[in-house]
Automatic annotation (TrEMBL):
Belongs to the ABC transporter superfamily. The lineage of its organism: Bacteria, Bacillati, Bacillota, Bacilli, Bacillales. Keywords: ATP-binding, Nucleotide-binding, Transport. This is Bacitracin ABC transporter ATP-binding protein. Pfam families: ABC_tran (PF00005).
Length: 310
């Protein structure tokens, strides 16, 4: 048994002659916040609309917590909470009335205790008896989250959830997502904003022109193969340069002076360089590591992709 709450395989959407989504596959585990990252028009909303059953697929399969969308649509939908378009509310009703109305329309039995629990979870207890028209965008977003999680879905999907939110609202939303994920929910969010995904997601996929061009677990990972820029503060930079050139020639040296030497190296290589310098009677005072941001990686990936497609 796989522990994926969402498993998307070979998802494809064609409209007329155009292939809008092209053979996209990925998985989301519970506890995981997974980002679909890509520029406007990349196909993110189309992917999400297919996963949530709002539009037909041309090809591919979707499994939500073990339920196949084709074989058990209701079972799959029961595991899902989603905000695809901006959440719609009755603005002249209170938040609570909106939630109660929604709960009554749900095919699931939703207890009053659950409603109270969810209102607390999204921190709307002080505003829940006020009319929605008095709510800020962030509060409406939270009411939308409350609605989406009422039936305790194992998968949550949000399409560009932070559009229009101010930095404070974005931060609060992020905290909510992390809380929900920590309770075992798998979360899919889409965004065209790299910096935001970086703060919000555990893993991400880059979508461009309908194709998934890259997936990566843990954007800033500590895995051995990740290359970082590493600088060593030493008592003799020139000697360090000489030693590395002679004894560890595959390490690219970026720069050196009397007291530092900078290279690009993996985690393992960093340890080896340190041992090598120490073994040659050099003093290493400090090792500084500059990690690449997701933004750097995103541009690296898309630039590489562009070069390859020329
Ligand atoms: N119903 C449709 N008919 C024709 N083209 C569409 C339709 N829906 C989306 N598209 C096109 O598919 C592409 C991807 O759209 P979309 O999924 O909305 O991208 P994103 O959400 O990443 O901005 C765009 O080029 C868009 O114009
Ligand atoms: Mg979109």
């Amino acid at each position: 048994m796989s522990d994926a709450v969402l498993k998307v395989q070979s998802l494809t959407k064609k409209i007329g002659n155009a292939t809008i989504v092209d053979n996209v596959s990925f998985e989301i585990k519970n506890n995981e916040i997974f980002g679909l990252l890509g520029p406007n028009g990349a196909g993110k909303t189309t992917i999400i609309r297919m996963i949530t059953g709002l539009i037909n697929r041309t090809g591919g399969s979707v499994m939500i917590n073990g339920s196949d969308l084709d074989k058990d649509f209701e079972g799959a939908m029961n595991q899902l909470g989603a905000i695809v378009e901006n959440p719609e509310f009755y603005k002249y009703m209170t938040g609570r009335k909106n939630i109660l109305h929604y709960a009554r329309m749900s095919p699931n039995d939703i207890s009053n205790e659950r409603i109270e629990e969810v209102i607390k979870l999204v921190k709307l207890e002080h505003a829940i008896d006020k009319k929605v028209k008095t709510y800020s965008l962030g509060m409406r977003q939270r009411l939308g989250v409350a609605q989406a999680i009422l039936h305790k879905p194992s998968l949550l999907i949000f399409d560009e959830p932070t559009n229009g939110l101010d930095p404070q609202g974005i931060r609060e939303f992020r905290d909510h997502l992390k809380l929900l994920a920590s309770e075992g929910v798998g979360i899919l969010i889409s965004s065209h904003l790299l910096s935001e995904m970086q703060l919000m997601c555990d893993s991400f996929a880059v979508i461009e022109k309908g194709k998934l061009i890259h997936t990566k677990e843990h954007m800033i990972d500590e895995k051995a193969e990740t290359i970082h820029q590493v600088s060593f503060a030493v008592n003799d930079g020139e000697l360090a340069n000489k030693i590395l050139q002679e004894q560890f020639a595959e390490i690219p040296i970026l720069s050196f002076d009397a007291s530092t030497i900078s290279v690009t190296a993996t985690r393992e290589q960093t340890a080896r360089i340190n041992r090598l310098l120490n073994g040659n009677e050099l003093d290493v005072y400090e090792i500084g590591i500059t990690r690449k941001s997701l933004e750097d990686k995103f541009f690296e990936i898309t630039e590489q992709e562009m070069r390859e497609s020329v």
